[in-house]
Specification:
396 residues, 2 domains, six-stranded parallel sheet, single chain, three-stranded antiparallel sheet, alpha/beta, Rossmann fold, 18 helices
Length: 396
């Protein structure tokens, strides 16, 4: 069965997380992704034993469905080889500090001259130009500068970062989406283009109504913990047996069902509880009241009745419970990926499902330079002797 991006070739020059995640998504959909890495140490996320393939788990999360080519881009011949490969590629993914590709003589104008059909995905912290372009950035830096850290945490408490590198993942996903849009546009125009994606822009895309509220009346959105900003009751609550439950019962139907389950229908006569706007206006009281109700019951008892009444709710699951979730198992969300030294590693797979061209793992995470000879033979017709000479010269 043909994969969705079969026939598309990708040069992945990126490292760390956002760029490799973008290229992995393209690989999951069937593109032939060549991970270009510096010799000896490779991607910065590889372990200290990278040359022998003893990579850490971080590396395995973002580099399945790729082949690895070791290539020294500080060497003139290394850059020449990359330029030759660019002529034949469909996509180039890079997340160097802005200006690095230009310093190598491979900025957009140069690569577009080599291959007018090339799509160049450029992932950076703050953009390719502007006053902050060359500032280094990682996920947490973008969360801080993009306002997300200010919105995260308990009301009145300290700002905190997300519990996962959500900006790196989302930036990689945005870049992959941009690449696929550019590939579609190329079908009409015959021309490639730059896909410019930043961690800061991605962080700001999560700000909901915060920017609009600030421009409207100067309101600066703050932290609310697990409470919803726009409805009540919606929050995480303790149960009698020490469990934790996240409940979303703000609508008329759901709130009426909730009070019926708990035997608290008399509250509906209180004008502060009467309608969704009333409950939002009195959210502190509503939260305090619902919290008291739920503390009288055990988690399993509540979950059984809330689910039966179709009220949105969830246990606050830890990772062991997530792995054991029957829906996760049914969906096949956790996949097994082979690695030469780690053996079989279980990890979360691509979250997107396609019916006619399914996403699959058809290449394990490569060790550093594992397919160097194979790739140079396929792309540039280099024989083993030529590659051996490059290796002796420190080019690969």
């Amino acid at each position: 069965m043909t994969r969705a991006l079969e026939g598309i070739t990708v040069l992945d020059l990126s490292r760390y997380v956002a760029g490799p995640y973008c290229a992995q998504m393209l690989g999951d959909f069937g593109a032939d992704v060549i991970k270009v890495e510096k010799p000896v140490t490779g991607d910065n996320m590889r372990g200290p034993g990278a040359a022998t393939g003893d990579d850490n788990l971080y590396m395995l999360m973002y580099n399945r469905n790729k082949r690895s080519l070791s290539l020294n881009l500080r060497h003139d011949r290394g850059r020449e080889i990359l330029a030759e490969m660019i002529r034949k590629a469909d996509v180039l993914v890079e997340n160097f500090r802005p200006g690095t590709m230009e310093a190598m003589g491979l900025g957009w104008e140069q690569v577009a001259a080599l291959n007018p059909r090339l799509i160049m995905a450029r992932i950076s912290g703050f953009g390719q130009d502007g006053p902050w372009a060359t500032r280094p950035a990682f996920d947490a830096i973008a969360q801080a500068e993009g306002g997300l850290m200010h919105l995260t945490g308990d009301s009145g408490g300290e700002a905190t970062m997300f519990g996962a590198i959500v900006i790196d993942y989302s930036t990689g996903t945005n870049a992959a989406l941009g690449v696929m849009a550019a590939l579609h546009a190329r079908e009409r125009t015959g021309r490639g283009q730059v896909v410019d994606v930043t961690l800061l822009d991605t962080a700001m895309s999560f700000l909901m109504t915060a920017v609009a509220e600030y421009h409207q009346d100067g309101t600066v959105m703050g932290r609310m913990g697990n409470r919803d900003r726009y409805s009540a009751p919606t929050n995480s609550y303790r149960t009698r047996d020490g469990g934790r439950l996240h409940l979303m019962a703000a609508g008329e139907k759901h709130f009426a069902a909730l009070v019926e389950i708990l035997g608290e229908e008399e509250c509906l006569a209180d004008p502060r509880f009467a309608t969704p706007p009333d409950r939002l206006e009195n959210a502190d009281l509503v939260d305090e009241t619902v919290a008291g109700w739920l503390l009288r019951h055990d988690l399993d008892w509540l979950m059984a009745r809330l689910v039966a009444a179709e009220i949105p709710c969830a246990r606050l699951a830890d990772i062991a419970e997530v792995v054991d979730n029957p829906q996760v198992k049914h969906r096949g969300t956790i996949i097994d990926v082979d690695h030469p030294t780690h053996g079989t590693v279980s990890m979360q797979g691509n979250p997107i499902r396609l019916t006619d061209t399914p996403v699959e793992t058809y290449r394990h995470v490569p060790t550093l330079g594992q397919q160097t000879e194979e790739i140079l033979d396929e792309w540039l017709d280099m024989d083993a002797d030529a590659v051996a000479t490059l290796r002796e010269d420190g080019v690969v």
